[in-house]
C-alpha cells in the first residue's frame, strides 16, 4: 500500500513502467490518486494512473476504513491536505493487513508506534532485488534517478549496497 511520494517520484523519474514491470501488484488509495492528480501536468504519466493494470486503488468506503482513516488523521495531525495520503494508506494497511510504503519519517514513527508494518522505497527496491526482479546495479540506478527527481532518500546509488547491508536489507 503506497503513498503519494513513492508513486510521484517514480513518475517524475520516468520509472513508473519499470516499477510496474517489477511488482505483481501494488495498491494505493483514492486519496493518494487525488493528491497525485495535482501533479499530472508536470508528470503526464500520472493522468493514466487508474488505468495501470498493476496498481489497485482502494476505494476506502467501508465503515471500518472510514473510522480507521479518521483515527490515522488524528494520529498524524493532518491539516488541510497535509498527511491525508499517509492517513489513507495507513488506514488501508491496518484494515487489510498490508505493508504501508512511505518515506515520510515522521509518519513512519507514528505508524510504527501504533503497530503498523511500514517500509520505504529503499526497502521496496532491495526486496525486488532479493526476489530477482531487479539487479543490484538497477536498484542503485533507480535510487540515483529518484534522488534526481527530488526524492529524499537516505543514501545515493553508490552508497546503497553498504547502507542496505548495514540494515539487513541485502
Tell me what you see in this structure.
The chain has nine helices and four strands. By secondary structure, the protein is mainly α. The protein folds into two domains: 4-119, 5'-nuclease (Rossmann fold, 3-Layer(aba) Sandwich), CATH 3.40.50.1010; 121-166, no CATH class. Helix 3 (30-37) packs antiparallel against helix 5, helix 4 (63-76) crosses helix 5 and helix 7 packs antiparallel against helix 8. It is globular.
List the helices and strands and how they pair.
Elements: H1 4-12, H2 16-22, E1 26-29, H3 30-37, E2 55-58, H4 63-76, H5 84-96, E3 100-101, H6 105-113, E4 118-119, H7 121-130, H8 136-148, H9 160-166
Parallel strand pairs: 1-2, 3-4
Helix pairs in contact: 3-5, 4-5, 7-8
For this entry, give a set of tags:
mainly alpha; Rossmann fold; 53% helix
Structural class: mainly alpha
- The CATH topology name of the largest domain reads Rossmann fold
Helix content: 40-55%
**Mean of pLDDT:** 94
The total strand number stands at 4
- Beta-strand fraction estimate: 5-15%
What is the alpha-carbon Rg in Å? 15 Å
Spatial shape = globular
